[in-house]
Write a structure and sequence with these properties.
The structure is a single chain. The protein is an alpha/beta fold. The protein has helices at 6-17, 56-64, 75-79, 93-105, 110-130, 150-159, 172-186, 197-202, and strands spanning 23-27, 32-38, 41-47, 139-142, 163-164.
Length: 213
């Protein structure tokens, strides 16, 4: 019925909830995106390159290692307890672990270390994904990492601007695709089809051997 790229999908999904958004920050489990929007249309975008530093997997693996934080939902509440977040800068995951061990050895609190990790991924995103590109005045943060309550606060502090998080921020892409398909159907360009949702849910997903990239 159609081909929809993720930049447009994320834009269409998020602007349904926040029509005035002109800047989209997105951090997922493995990648990150930036989109500049004008009147609901993306006019510039950027994505992180090969490195996954500053994404959800980076944050989760760093917290799990020496900090013994087993699940992602635990990270935000711990970070919010910080009183003196550490400054790790923009580091690849290969180096952040040694910084964490050093901080632990120096007696730093777990919450201050975790908050330092949060600021690290935000700095990484702003400097390596956004770079010198324009940041507007109406910013929405989406992607699974946006569910961590400490991340939008760190973005707000580092940009000096308000950050809005749409409901179910990790689903904005697929929601955007659904909206586009609905729009195409209303225009008579996509025909209705029947899908057996139960059959789709019962399909088996097979995970093969994992590897470290």
């Amino acid at each position: 019925p159609g081909v929809y790229n993720e930049i447009i999908a994320h834009t269409v999904g998020t602007t349904f909830f926040e029509p005035e958004v002109d800047t989209l920050f997105e951090i997922g489990g493995q990648d990150a995106k930036y989109v500049l929007i004008n009147n609901g249309v993306p006019i510039d975008y950027a994505m992180n390159e090969a490195c996954s530093a500053g994404t959800g997997s980076f944050l989760e693996e760093s917290a799990r290692g020496d900090l013994n934080i087993e699940t992602a939902p635990e990270i935000g509440p711990i970070a919010l307890q910080a009183t003196a977040p550490l400054k790790f800068g923009e580091h690849c995951s290969a180096f952040i672990n040694s910084d964490i061990r050093k901080a632990i050895g120096e007696g730093a609190k777990q919450s201050d270390i975790v908050a330092g990790l949060i600021f690290s991924i935000v700095a990484n995103y702003l400097n390596r994904v956004v770079g010198n590109r324009k940041i507007g005045g109406a910013i929405a943060l989406q992607g699974g990492v946006a569910k961590n309550p400490a991340v939008p606060l760190a973005f707000a502090q580092m940009t000096g601007k308000a950050i809005v998080v749409p409901p179910d921020p990790e689903l904005m892409g697929c929601f955007g695709v659904a909206r586009m398909v609905q729009r195409k159907h209303n225009e008579g360009l996509v025909a209705l089809e029947d899908f057996d949702l139960e059959a789709l849910l019962e399909k088996e997903i097979v995970y093969k051997d994992s590897f470290t990239c």
